[in-house]
Amino acid sequence: MEKLTGKGKMLFLAAVLALSLAVVSSPQGVSAAPWPERNITIVVAYNPGGGFDLVARVTAPFIEKYLPKRASVIIKNVPGGGTRIGTRELAKAKPDGYTISIFDPVSLAVMEYGGKPDWLNVRKLTWLAQLDNLADMLVVGPKTGFKHPRDLKGKTVRFAGQDDATIFRSAVVAHSLGAMPVFVRYGGTGEAVMASLRGDLDALSLSWSSGMRQVKTSEDKMIPLLVSSKVPGLNVPSGKELGITVDELVMDHPHTMAGPPGMPSDVQRMWEETFVKVTKDPEWIAKMEKLGYPASPLIGKKKLDAPIAATMGRMDKYKDIIGGLTLIK
Amino acid sequence: MWIEGFTNALSGMNILWLLLGSVIGLVIGVLPALGANFGVALMLPFTFGMEPAAAIIMLCAIHAACNYGDSITSILLNVPGGPGTVATCWDGHPMAQQGRGGEALGIATFSSFLGGVAVWLMLALLVNPITKLALAFGAPEYFALVFMALGLVSVAAKGETLKGLIMACTGLALSAVGQDEVLGTTYRFTFGIPMLEAGIPIVVSTLGIFAIPQVIEMLEAGGTVAKCTEVRDSVFRGFLAPLRRPLTLLRSGVVGAFIGILPALGVALAGIASYLTEKKYSREASQFGKGSPAGVVAAEVGKGACVVGDLIPTFTLGVPGSVTGAILMAALIMQGIEPGPKFLLSGTLPYTVFAGLLLAQATFLVTGVLIGKQLCRIAYVPSTLMAPVLTVLVFLGAYATQNSGFDILLALIFGLFAHVLGKIGYPVVCMVLGLILGPILEANFHRALGESLGSYAVFVTRPMAVGMFLITILFLIGPYLIHIYHRYRKGPRGFIAQALDEEETARSYKGEFILLVLLVLVFAVFLITAQQYRPLVRLFPDLASSLGLGFAIWRLAIIISRVIKARGWGEAPPAASPFAFFGDSLSWQWSLITLSGYVLAIYVLGFLMASVLYVMGVLMIAGGRRKRGWTILAGLLTGLGVWLLAKVVHILLPLGLLTGM
User: Fold this and answer.
1) Is residue A77 within 8 angstroms of chain B, CB to CB?
2) What is the pLDDT of residues B493-523, one digit of tens each?
3) Up-side HSE of residue A216: CA atoms within 13 Å toward CB?
4) Interface contact B184-A219, CB threshold 8 A
5) What CA–CA distance (Å, rounded) separates B248 from B282?
6) CB contact, 8 Å: A321 with chain B?
7) Global confidence as pTM
8) I need a surface site. Which of A233, B334, B582, B588 has the fewest CB within 10 A?
9) Neighbouring C-alpha atoms within 13 Å toward the C-beta of A285
10) ipTM for the predicted complex
11) Rounded Cα distance, B120 and B515, in Å
12) Is A58 at the interface with chain B, CB within 8 A?
């Protein structure tokens, strides 16, 4: 074979590279083989490191394990605009099952009800699986003097408000207790707890798991007063036990996976089968437990659509609260 | 416990994880905009199945090495690897241009190490008092501290205070774009663009501001980054520089550690604040900006101290000091360690974590020495090849920050604006300070007001806050008092002032006039738009826009009076033919066209294909037509590199409208 000259070598190398680049970057052909044909993306509308991101990162390898066909699951953090940017990306994505997301349905309900964005219809999203669901906890600072939830009645209480959903839940719990809430915005729960320890803030409404972590971190200085629904093994009274009406439907904190509206039913079914297997895996259950999010699965559109519709319906009841918080644009 | 911690950390496998973490961190750190939070988040799932000590040691190594890696591109290419190393560019890069890149890397490596180790010792020995200090720092104190940091505008714009103030107000006004800082329920100044609801990410804006003008400059100048042929270089020589400057070490270490210990202030502020503070007090201040080792020491000690200091609230208060801190905290929880005051009482593992932190610092010190000299060769790669490849990495980094294609456009807009500002002689650093400090200032103002149930007295009744306000006033008034004392004596002046003065005599006022008219329009639009928001929501934007408007009109009046006096715009420097080829270089007009074309192509053809075409296009225009084979090869290699990088670090490349690539 004739030897290539310097220029010839260069062109040969360029041709090989061009060919390899074309091969690696070309979209894979459509085949009749089982779904999925390419990688899955989980859009997380938060920064890395938070609860939603961690649950997604813990769950992603198990989704890979149980998908009908081998595919990578990539976490795509799309933070900003108080989860609006990431939520919009999911809501506008192709409903082909390759893009899903992890949400707190109450947060979306507040976003839809308050801001009325034309791209969001919470009821129409394809709800796939609730992974966990934690009761809400009311925690107060050591300098407030509050020892019982009824101590808040008629008082002006400074609540931490990180986002629309936190403000909404705090307003609902304050409404239930007859307190007058004032909201102070913090960068995160840790900063709010520091303010409570200094006496600059009175109360936080957060998931019981996060609440108990803060109580422990503060060396029991922070005081847990109330949970929205009974938590087995936790020595904090629920609203029901104290005779206080706390709306569990909007107060509980679930991590729920959903896809864009209009996902084909066969793809939906495959997702549901995958999540059934994921949520039964003892290793996944143990990891979620370790993370502070004990599994509480609810799989499938049929099981999820009703509570989502009920949550949306409940928003009318809190119209005045949402309006008063100027969450309505 | 300490001995057990170190023994654990130094066991065979853990050393391997330490080294692996350092290598991963260094690779991610070197890439513009991809910082420690990206690296640690990327590797977090892989640590879930690892032994607790190994997992934390590897993540700590990634954290340390990423922050070190950021300095490399700052020094060698004048492109900050992350917001924390913006100030490293200012003296590190001139050193690289003088053929002292190795020395600058040595200074950065050892200074960052010293800053980190000093704070590590503080963390280990004084954890309780430091924790108490962080706990005592409330919203009014933060507000006072950030107000004090805003005083640095006067240093950054020394001699040109009015221009500095205009720029600071521009930064402050732009920082108000997006979610409001009162309750986060209003999306300000989005002008119908949904992506602006996310605001302007500081990583993206600083990347654009510093990288794009550098790319344009590299292409315009041609040749190589290193402007000298004689190499007088030694990484080890750089180790002596911080040791010879104990006061610089002390001052910058204190500033960096303080900013690190207080949650949410961030490494971006640490580097710039340490540098500017040192510039104010150093005996070598006149050399700052010209390749002064003291400048690199200050920026790097501040950054190194902040990076480790950031972990103090994370570990001891359970309050993450940054996004990276939050991820490390999650990793600790996953491994069964609860961060908080009882952190050090949770058995041997926390001591292993501490040992791992120290060893991570030591590892990047060794890595830095080993690779420093080799990396310097980058400064000798032809600029016409380096600049387009760098642009590809910059845009990739801007995109990966929030996985948003819009951020690429934002980086370009900020970059071109910064280029214009540089040409006209406006101190862009002041705008960066405004962008960084604006949200912290506003958030803490409203937080303090909310905590005090609306009483403004909170700002004058907290002793620490009052103390800091007084220091700020002294800091601002002090120079004027000294100026009055030295009224008739011409003292040494800072590099920014000198640069501005040089421009003042050489250029026409026409460009500045157009800029100011545009800024007046922008401030006016902000001011009018703000009126639709509630009073508290519009308070800060109103203030920044009104002040900016006032300062801009003031400066316009000065220019108009000078133009009337001189009966003309002044002489413009002779301009080269805008579309001329310069052999192996590219005029700035061509840079503008190719950069804009590249961004457009990303939206149409997708990132991969657009990058290949852009690199080949720039090389062709800049004289590569003579070497067609090399041009095609460089383009294809860039494409393959981008594809591989995206696969390895799991970046979903932006898709094009046409190709879906």
Assistant:
1) yes
2) 444 444 444 444 445 788 899 999 999 999 9
3) 15
4) no
5) 7
6) no
7) 0.83
8) A233
9) 9
10) 0.84
11) 47
12) yes
What residues of A are in contact with residue B615 (Cβ under 8 Å)? none
Percent of chain B scoring above 90 in pLDDT: 25
CA distance B653 to B656: 10
DSSP states of B472-512: HHHHHHHHHHHHHHTTTS-----HHHHHHHHHHHHS-SHHH
Domain termination site, one of B387, B413, B441: B441
What are the structure tokens assigned to B37, written together?
């939070």
| Residue among B134, B264, B643 minimizing CB distance to A21 | B643
| Chain B, nearest residue to A192 by Cα | B319
Q: Is residue B539 part of a domain?
A: no
Mean pLDDT value across residues B463-478: 83
- Contacts with B317 from chain A: Cβ below 8 Å: 190, 194, 217
| Residue that terminates a domain, selected from B416, B441, B466 | B441
CB contact under 8 A, A80 and B201: yes
Contacts of B182 in chain A (CB under 8 A): 185
User: Is the residue at B409 inside a domain?
Assistant: yes
pLDDT over 80 at B312, yes or no: no
Range(s) of the domain holding residue B610:
588-648
Residues of chain A numbered 247-266 and touching chain B (CB < 8 Å): none
A114 vs A223, more confident: A223
Instruction: Establish if B532 belongs to a structural domain.
Output: no
Indicate the range of A263-277, B358-372, B433-447 predicted with least confidence. B358-372
Contact B652 A217 (CB under 8 A): no
Would you say residue B525 lies in a domain?
A: no
Q: Regarding predicted confidence, which is higher, B489 or B598? A: B598
What is the mean predicted confidence (pLDDT) over A236-241? 92
Residue of chain A whose alpha carbon sits nearest to that of B329: A49
| A97 in B contact zone (CB under 8 Å) | no
Q: State how many domains chain B has.
A: 2
List C-alpha distances in Å: A169 to A160, A249, B239, B454.
11, 11, 55, 23
